[in-house]
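Ticket closed. Logging final result for Adenosine receptor A2b.
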Amino acid sequence: MIAHKVFVGVALVYCPLITFCSFLVFCGTMMYPGSSMNNQSYLLLSLSAADFLMGSFSIPMYILTYLPYTRENIFKNKYACLTWFASAEMAAASSIGSLLCISVDRYVAVVFPLHYHTLVTEERCITVLVLLWTVVIVVAFVPMLGWNTYDPQLYPLTHRCSFYRTLPHSYIVWVSFGSVSFIVVSCALMYAHILSISYRQMKLSERRASLVPTQNRQLKMRIYSVKITSLLVIIFIVLWLPIVFTAPLKYYQLFSPKVFEILQVVTQLFYFSNSLVNAPIYSMLRSEYREVYKVMLLTVPCRWKSILRDLYRTNHASVYYPTEPRLTTASSPVDYSVETLAPEKFQSISKERASKIQILNARNSILKKSVTLISKQSGKESHECRTNGTWV
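Final structure:
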């Protein structure tokens, strides 16, 4: 069938792209020192892991079931057939579950900004993600434990291993379509409220031109973060709506089998596309992460950890160089021997930043000399005071 050939061709392109992009995002989030392990990092790791599962496990199983050479063998084997269903359920459920967690996190941050850090703690975030993946794995593999209607004597083979015939009706309606529909509608409602609040805040900031620059900058960063996650969820809704509307039509037999097969292929490619854009959109729209992935793409994987550490030091050079000398006495000297960053290490990253590091090195040297002079002077004054028997 032509639709199957088109599906296999597109899926063969999707598979390596989704796997590589999600692996890149996962490694970048784990290795880059700037991405501290906070709630957003945990959510991004969960999302990239779900998409990696889609590209490395679920889509290859779909490809095997659409190839004529392996299709018959999978349909004839009960556990191979149920593994195909489990891969689809696990990858899709973990992906949309992670997106739901991201939506709830952003909703609390925008609607209850003063209570965000008390409501969404790191422990609660980790607990929710662990529960999410536990439920996803259990739900995906429950049919393999006996909750299925697989009949080895049934012909044709497409009826024997069919998502709508092999799995129970209640499982499909409530566990699959019901949960997906609930998540899509919930995300749409939450982000409609989030966008309305962000719009009001943006208008308010434009009217208050006398805002403190720091407050104005924080407000703009929060609105920008909302725009990123809003774009992510809007794409998620657009790409998942087709399968939400078309999948239940199988039970009403409104279309012929061939037409429904074409609709099924198109909607499957749509929600595969969601895994292709999830993690890149959520991370690459942030300027610092764009540079992280650019460096990772131009470097061999064995050097990722060291080059990302050097990149972080370059971006946050002020952390390693004190901007003001601290007054000390000779009796309590302070060690100002900070790590000197060699600019030649970063020529491949940014020549402009290398020149900034040279300036900071020179400033640091001047500050060391100033502190030494101040320490000597204060030590000399204290000695004179002790000699005269007086203290200032």
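Residues 318-349, 385-392 have pLDDT under 50 and may be disordered. No further action required.
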